[in-house]
Fold this sequence. Notes:
four-stranded mixed β-sheet, Beta-clip-like, 11 strands, mainly beta, disordered N terminus
Amino acid sequence: MKRSKIHDRNKLIIECTQSCNCPNSCVNQVVGSCLGKINIECSVRKTEKMGYGLFAERDIDEGEFLGCYLGEMVIHDPKNPGSYIDDAYYFEYFTEINQYLPNPSTALYVDARKYGNATRFLNHSCQPNLEGFHAIINFDKDNPSDSQLPSIAFFAKKFISKGSQLQYDYTSSYWNVMNSQGVFCNCDAKVCHYSYKKFKNNKK
């Protein structure tokens, strides 16, 4: 069964829960009903330039839900040079949550290195075919304080043909740091924003 939904990129997804008293036929339970599993047939393959990647094993319609980025919740201070850790599988979390952390310089991340699913193999593209959203799937309107943190959910932003690599935009905040360390984008998009050539031209 295909689970589809087109979202406004500027809005948080709030799905219905048992506390909504919705019928079993409710269509606003796309992310929550998958229980953390990958919703689309896909496979992990070795790529030429980007290590391992995630590839579609069937055609994917625009708006289809792929799955959630899963892992350990980690509080990390990126501004503290003494707190270096391997952040290769970090996904920066819902930034509005950071204001509730004890230390204002820290941020909340999802670390998929030890625990997670195949979404940790999603590579970057400057012209991505996936879009990430924060989705609240277990909000309790009667007891808001008992609600859990939002999930990071990936949806197809356009039609994706079978065999295509599944990719999303790591954003400029990631690439600005990586470019400064001599690491550049290899996505081969027609318009690549973070390649060595682009970085060199910006320095002129």
